[in-house]
Amino acid sequence: MPELPEVEVTRRRIAPLLVGRRVARLHTTRNSYFFLTPPGRLARAVEGRAACGLERRGKYLVAPLEGGARLLLHLGMTGQLFAGGATSIRLLRASARAALPPEAQPAFRPDSHTHLRFCFEDGGPEVLFRDVRKFGKVQLLAPGESCARLARLGGDALEITGEQIFRAARGRRIAIKSLLMDQSVVAGSGNIYADEALFWAGVRPRRQAGRVTRAECRRIAAALRRVMLRSIETGGSSISDFIAPDGSDGAYQDERRVYARTGAGCRRCRRRIRRVLLGQRSAHYCPGCQR
DNA sequence: ACCGCACCCTGAGCGC
DNA sequence: TGCGCTCAGGGTGCGG
Questions:
Q1: Cβ within 7 Å of nucleic strand C, residues
Q2: For A162, A175, A198, A283, which has the most beta carbons within 10 A of its beta carbon?
Q3: What domains does chain A contain, in order, with CATH numbers?
Q4: In angstroms, what CA-CA distances link A137 with A31, A38, A170, A284?
């Protein structure tokens, strides 16, 4: 589940392969939930143009194109944006992995989940966007067109202050973790880093947002920033599907304290990590370290 | 205004 | 071996 750190790692590493290279062909799958802009229109708009930058807004990637249009990408839960020639077992289904010898690195061949395939005029490496569950999104924004999705975003998780979180939480009865995952409050935060930040801040995920103190909000903001910067440094979290554009795994999953560690011992106090449901999502916390 | 929940999708992992 | 079931989850939108 790519969140801010995974999107930022992707941005930094895919930018050199995308920016300034003129697209000769854009191959797509057929229209689906994935395409906010129908694939034919998308291809016509992108072909013959180059991206002139690649920016991140929360969990979105935005590529301004020559001519003023913008290409919006969201990795959803299982999105993978990578270079042609990259190899990773995460690009294979489990049955295919199991059939491989342990150290095999099979070349990836675009499959039915590869929704975008950018081929460039220079004949160099392609850029591929694969997304098994199609929770990812691609959208073309015409020159000058505003975007409601981007307009809704709150403060970037790397920049947000404790005071901003505290103010957003006033009077709110939802769980603090739900507030942290609301992209109109904190852009870029998701299940993993909300759980991790709440661990470091010592706050239980189900605490009512309006009852979290100003001091706790400051700790939450500081922890969010710290875990995300550290995750970017280590290449993000590869827990299920995430790979960097070169096919490599991130390493932050090895440093996590609570996320998906249900039943394991807390690395600080040894008590067992608990999992609770929050809406339709799971939340993980240490009963000893979080109040 | 706020909040909880259904929905979109597919593969993994389970029990039978 | 294979079927059918449940679960996971980001973001959106709806109904209460």
A1: A 1, 3, 58-59, 74, 76-78, 133, 135, 149, 152, 181, 183, 190-192, 260, 280-282
A2: A198
A3: 4-151 (3.20.190.10), 155-285 (1.10.8.50)
A4: 12, 11, 32, 28
Specify the length of chain A in residues.
291
User: Which tokens belong to A51?
Assistant: 């991206």
Provide the token pair at A59: 């969990």
Residue nearest to nucleotide B3 (CA to C1'): A174
Which two structure tokens, joined as six digits, stand for A36? Answer: 């906010």
From first CA to last CA, the distance across chain A in angstroms is 27
Cα dihedral: A232, A116, A44, A18 (round 10) = 30
Options A12, A25, A117, A281, the catalytic residue: A281
Helix (H) or strand (E) segment spanning residue A232: helix A214-233
Predicted TM-score (pTM) above 0.85 = yes
Query: Å between A70 CA and C14 C1'?
Result: 30
Q: Which of A33-42, A68-77, A250-259 has the lowest mean pLDDT?
A: A250-259
* Residue entry with tokens 């270079």: A83
Token representation of residue A168: 């957003």
- Start-end of H helices in A234-269: none
Whether A2 is catalytic is yes
Taking the CA of residue A280 and the C1' sugar atom of nucleotide B5, their distance in angstroms comes to 8
